[in-house]
Amino acid sequence: MAWSMEGQLFETCNCDLICPCSAYPFAGADYDRCLTVYGFRIDSGQIEGVDIAGTIMAVAFDAPKYFLEGNWRVGLLIDAAASDEQAAKLTALLSGELGGPVAALSGMISENLGVQRVPMQYSVDSGTRVLTVGNLGRLAITELVPSGEKNGPPARLTAKFNPATAAGLSDGQITMCKAETGSHLDAFGIEFRPKVGLWAHFALAG
User: Fold this and answer.
1) Phi (first) and psi of residue 163, to 5 degrees
2) Which terminus of the chain is less hemmed in, N or C, by CB atoms within 10 Å?
3) Are the CB atoms for 179 and 189 separated by under 8 Å?
4) Is 93 helix (H, G, I), strand (E, B) or coil?
């Protein structure tokens, strides 16, 4: 096996309540452009023999309303704490060069916005997850609890068409979240101001 990794997936987007792409992508996003950030906390894994456990990265998307049409603009953010070797392997993996399920999405990308190395942190506190991206921004999401009870069971969705699951990025079990007011990321000339989010476990190999 050339590579494998697993950990936790973090997503934010600019839709209003629940990302339509998670439930029925043919309905389209709430706005003309879908501005999404996927964060990855890699708990274990290797790429061509290079250990990548403990690394953090994020993929910033600017996609049309109907994301299945392709024409995505994509940029990659990698934690500055990662070694040059780890960063090179992660970049090759996310570009689709190493094959596997990630490569299935590479044909959807029309513009590569580049790679930035920045200090990154990912934290979990009860139902809240925070991704800090150096001085570029801070994204926070909190689980949606339908009952409104503190520490109550969150809303979950089984979805096979979300980009997070279409390429095998998780088992389809997605926990729905709301973005914290003030969450933001300014990267690759794009202002990300999310309203909703989700998190899920992922396992990938190729």
Assistant:
1) -55, -25
2) N
3) no
4) helix
